[in-house]
Amino acid sequence: MMPTGKASGNAVLAKARALYGSRLRADDYRRLMACRTMTELAAALKEYPLYSGALAEVNPQYARRVQLENLLRQSLYTRYDSLCRYDRSAGSKVYEYFTLCCEVDELTAAMRCLDAGRPGDYLFRLPEFMQQRCCIDLYALAKATSLDGILAAVAGTRWEKVLAPLQSAKPDRGLTAQAEPLLQDFRHRALVALAPAKGGTSAAPNLRDLVELECDTSAVSNAARLIRVGAPATTVRNACRRDCSALTAAEWDYLLASPDLPAFKQRFAQTSYGPLLAHHDYTVLKEGFFRYRTDWCRKWLRFSTEPTLVMMCYIWLAQCEVWNLNHIIEGDRYSDREDERFGDYGFSKKEFDGEEMVDVEEDEEEGAYLDLDESSDDDM
Questions:
Q1: How confident is the model at residue 119 (pLDDT cuts 50, 70, 90)?
Q2: pLDDT (tens digit, 9 = 90+) per residue, 248-279?
Q3: In angstroms, what CA-CA distances link 17 with 193, 263, 290, 375, 378?
Q4: CB 248 within 8 A of CB 227
């Protein structure tokens, strides 16, 4: 009889690949982008099996941007839930990290509603498996109408200490802007803790390679942005987390000593990432990392035999899909609809190249880049 852990690991592999097989394709994106109103878009989204459950209660006639974006975010939770059940049975601790990420998302969503003056817009919908492991009092969080209410919802949890600095928050800066660095720093440390120690001679990547890639994406992008605006060298070094990196200490020292952004990019091309990103067209480094990581995850979702890595690759790709949909939703909200233009969806014609959508900004701080998936059903 197959050991329980191995059987559960095989279930993670099968489940993640089956979910990826249900992804949206380029024709699906084109159909959604052709929707001329939020009502049409909501009705179209409800027809896709991957989103029909999350949007089941949505009346397309009254659909709102915030409502759709929240429900799409919560559709990710359902997929986390189905994968994390198997992951836990396989003996992995990755499900604990995803529970933490969900808590970060819920706290951030609640604070954004407070900042907008609409606390009643926040509703939590974590699936049962994740609700049982969430340490936040979600009912109290949903009722919070002030910072005190949010702090009461996290009392006695790991978040109480993390959010303690908010007790002296500046009212004119916005709660979310002051809380996000605290939440993301804690999330980062939890992610690094997942990475196995370096070692081994296997050519196949493991979870550490993916964690290093995520950490390096953030660190390199932050460094480029700060150098571009002329930040002091000490500020650049302090802002770039290098506690889990594929770059050597010498490579980092060389990068961070760059006098300006052109020099930084030139030096980056000489690092171990340079040849990897050179295969992709990009304008800003974060876009290059995004494209490289997307292709990397597609490859190892298919070929890796490590359940945890396959699960993490799928979740990244699922997040990319929801980011794509958020861009389309934003386009529907702000479009004047007088004619059909790429700009209606947040892109210039130069930014829509062939079969790929790319959200390109000159600022290295920009966060998401869209990628249409043209692969066929038999890719997996």
A1: confident
A2: 999 999 999 999 999 999 999 999 999 999 99
A3: 26, 41, 21, 14, 12
A4: no
CA quadruple 216, 25, 77, 152: dihedral sign: positive
244-249 CB contacts, 8 Å cutoff, 24+ apart? 244/191, 244/192, 244/195, 244/208, 244/211, 244/212, 244/215, 245/212, 245/215, 245/216, 245/219, 246/209, 246/212, 246/213, 246/216, 246/272, 246/273, 247/216, 247/271, 247/272, 247/273
pLDDT of residue 363: 47
Q: In this structure, which amino acid lies at residue 286?
A: K
What is the model's pLDDT at position 74?
Answer: 82
Single out the residue of 84, 78, 167 nearest to residue 126, CA to CA: 78
* Cα–Cα distance, 105 to 380 (Å, whole number): 31
Place of tokens 């050519």: 203
Please tell me the distance from the alpha carbon of residue 174 to that of residue 112, in angstroms, as a whole number: 9
| Residue 55 pLDDT > 90 | yes
